[in-house]
Sequence to fold (518 residues):
Amino acid sequence: MAKKQILSLIILVFLFFICLLLCLFYKLDIHNKELILSYIRIPSIIKAIISGSCLAIAGMFLQTISKNPLADPYLTGLSAGAGFGIVISILLFNSINYSLFGFLGAIITAFLVILLSGFSKFSITKLILIGLSLNLFTGAIISFLILKNPDKSYEMTLILTGGFSSSEIFDNFLIALFILSIIICSIFIPKLNALRLDNKLIFKNQSTANKYNIIFVILAAFLTSISVYSAGILGFVGIICPLLSKLIFGNDIRLLFFTNILLGSYLLLFSNFISTNIIYPLQIPLGIVISIVGVPFFIFFLLKKGGILNN
Amino acid sequence: MGSNGTGKSTLLKIITGNIKTDIQIENSFKNIFYLPQNPYYPSSITTFDYLSSIFFKNNWKWFISNEEKEKINNILMKIGLYDKKNISIENLSGGEIQKINIALGLISDADILLLDEPASNMDLNNQVNILKLLKNLTYNNITSVIIMHDLSLALKYGDNFIGITKENKIIQKDSQEFFSMENLKKIFNMDFEIIKGQNNTYVQIID
Fold:
């Protein structure tokens, strides 16, 4: 590891902890300290960390195996599938507990995308195109449903922008899922280093490469559904974090795994902090803040070091 | 060898299974390495990291062993790129990238290398070095199948030749029989003069 990378890593960890402390203790009311911490701030921090790192890792998986910097959970239709599940749950069950339906929606979409791309003649380009069309299709249906039900349209639009405010989630279950997924990922991560090479370079036969591609798509779907389960649909995180960490830290997936976790959760923690505090007591929807915070930062790095992405 | 568009690359793709056909292929080789003409490489990756990718293919460990590092260093030394091991691969020249990709095949434990015009961007000196390296491998029972257009180099380093004619017929012979005026006329539709020296055979184009 070069000196520059170590320095960037230290800065990232430092920023992460500052943000964590800010989110925990900024303008904390002394009288209800424990109540606020344990019921509002800590759960939302946990959700931010979980959804941020899951989206970032899922984005890294999809970008590495597709060798396409545009691939992310949002574009491959996983998030839209989750959104569809959420809207259905609001319409049919009148419930705010949308996360479980989001989870189901993401999983179903993931399998639909993989199934339509075909197990035997699996190709990455097909996967992205099918994901993109499914994304547009479900997006259209969601917009239609929102127009059709004006009495619940505010609720649905708000939920589609994502956030950590829903408190009806079993945090322990979520944490268990997250830890499980991290353990599974860390088993498979070194393999991803080999998938940096051209798919056509074969060493045994073509099917082994495709087998790992499919495994990583399923893992990405699993991670996205965890993220949707915890915080609803958040676009942009899944595409910006893997690219940004690639720009800063180079190309070793083993290192990028950790930096993605840090960067993803940092971005969401910071956005969460701004969305809850900047025009207090109003809350800005998280998706809006992520775009406002993330896009200038991202474009700055792209202009500075973007030559790397030209191939 | 053969003219453009006669199906040389297609043949390799059929052998590797990249193009699906009904042809049954009997394979007596354990590991195949296939190098397409312009393989994808990730941006901003150093030469060393690029070569190390291959060692993550068949096992589950997080770090590559010292032996494998040694192997990469050795191969870089052999192809003369050791001093560029920490340079991003996109900053290398076309010929150097081709050398790196061949090195990938050499450390991949493959016992057959299928190379699609591996030396087309290299200078003469490097072409000869790479072909010598590949020739030496044959003494360790590693076969190389190379698509190439340079007749004199092919004649110098090849053992067996497959030519594809314009009519998509295949001529397969060893070097003595392959380089005859009739065969070359069939393949390239040009006239050649074959000069047999004491130890070597030479090919000369006749206008």
In short: The longest helix of chain A spans residues 33-66.
